[in-house]
């Protein structure tokens, strides 16, 4: 059975450094899936009402009664209201004050609270730990509504694909957090503030020694992408198949990997994006390697008999 989060009062499967059991882990994963499905449905209903869905910040912070009396006017507005409420059930609204911060302060996270102390952070989010060593991350939105990070792609020389980290959307952030839960440290979403700050809860881990070699991190699920196919401005570009689709996963350096309670190395942060099929369709060698890696994570860059391409 889930416990109760001490800040939000909502059910939580994560507590301190203790890894959840199989049931708890699966429940958190199911929550990620339900949230993504509900957001897709919300975006579809919003578009039918002529509401802009990109950027998606307005969608993810919509109140349950956002549509108001329009729900009685037309069926499409009623459908939108129902979609908002269904999404809100997967992502509750919370307040910074619930965590001891002030939403009125110019910099709410400038100082620790009585229950949360700062343990890290960067451009995307700030990380705090409570007395029981549960980790809470506060993802900050940028001007224009972007949040988190993803990859943008461009063609390089020949068939080379260039990947550059850029600000992302809430949907892409939800996907990244699902990936983090799947590949690394258990990660659940605690809620979102009315301003758009996403609050994420994560199991605590011990830092690795600085400059630890990450080259062999989970090579069966995170396959290093040969540099002849792709170059990235983030460390360790790797291939992962999410729902059968090839994704680029990067930024898995030693500060984004920790040692869990059971001694395993766990990713706590990453940057990710699906590899664009339109680009792969123009690179037979890259696409061929991806399909071989799907069957054998140790696949070489070139298939046997292609040595002349070196």
From TrEMBL:
It comes from the Bacteria. Residues 1-24 are annotated as: Disordered. This is Uncharacterized protein. It comes from Lacunisphaera limnophila.
């Amino acid at each position: 059975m889930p416990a109760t989060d001490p800040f939000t009062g909502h059910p939580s499967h994560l507590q301190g450094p203790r890894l959840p059991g199989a049931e708890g882990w699966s429940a958190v994963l199911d929550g990620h899936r339900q949230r993504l499905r509900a957001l897709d449905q919300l975006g579809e209903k919003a578009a039918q009402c002529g509401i802009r869905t990109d950027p998606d910040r307005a969608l993810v912070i919509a109140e349950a009664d956002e549509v108001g009396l329009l729900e009685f006017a037309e069926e499409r507005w009623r459908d939108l209201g129902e979609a908002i409420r269904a999404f809100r059930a997967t992502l509750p609204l919370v307040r910074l004050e619930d965590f001891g911060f002030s939403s009125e302060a110019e910099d709410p996270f400038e100082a620790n609270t009585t229950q949360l102390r700062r343990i890290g952070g960067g451009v995307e989010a700030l990380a705090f730990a409570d007395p029981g060593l549960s980790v809470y991350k506060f993802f900050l939105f940028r001007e224009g509504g972007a949040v988190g990070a993803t990859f943008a792609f461009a063609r390089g020389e020949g068939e080379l694909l260039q990947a550059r980290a850029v600000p992302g959307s809430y949907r892409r952030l939800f996907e990244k957090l699902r990936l983090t839960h799947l590949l690394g440290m258990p990660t659940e979403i605690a809620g979102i503030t009315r301003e758009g700050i996403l609050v994420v809860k994560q199991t605590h881990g011990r830092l690795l020694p600085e400059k630890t070699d990450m080259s062999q991190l989970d090579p069966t699920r995170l396959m290093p992408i040969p540099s002849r196919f792709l170059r990235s401005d983030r460390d360790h570009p790797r291939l992962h198949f999410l729902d059968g689709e090839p994704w680029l996963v990067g930024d898995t350096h030693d500060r984004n990997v920790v040692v869990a309670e059971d001694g395993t190395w766990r990713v706590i942060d990453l940057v990710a994006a699906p590899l664009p099929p339109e680009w792969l369709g123009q690179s037979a060698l890259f696409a061929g390697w991806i399909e071989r890696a799907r069957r054998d994570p140790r696949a070489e860059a070139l298939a046997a008999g292609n040595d002349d391409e070196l």
